[in-house]
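Journal club prep — side note

Before the paper discussion, L.F. wants everyone to see what a predicted structure for a comparable chain looks like in token form. Sequence:
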Amino acid sequence: MSTLTRISRFLLILVFFSGGSFSKAAVQPSGRLIVMRAANFGWNLAANLKIDGRTVGNVVQGRRYDHLIPAGRCNARV
């Protein structure tokens, strides 16, 4: 085998192994938060949803909040 073929095979193998390890490192555990607004909550009212003191959305009549949040303790307020 020529030197160029050996180098290209080595680089190809390196790319495959490093690509797999980078994709696994980027995945972080998370949870899903679903907030559904009750129909009898009132007309023309919105629930202001805050997670850890930061407003993440308003839940109005007929809608819901359905998003992924980071794993761990969170403080959710409506």
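L.F.'s comment for the group: The radius of gyration is 24 Å. Keep this in mind when we get to the figures.
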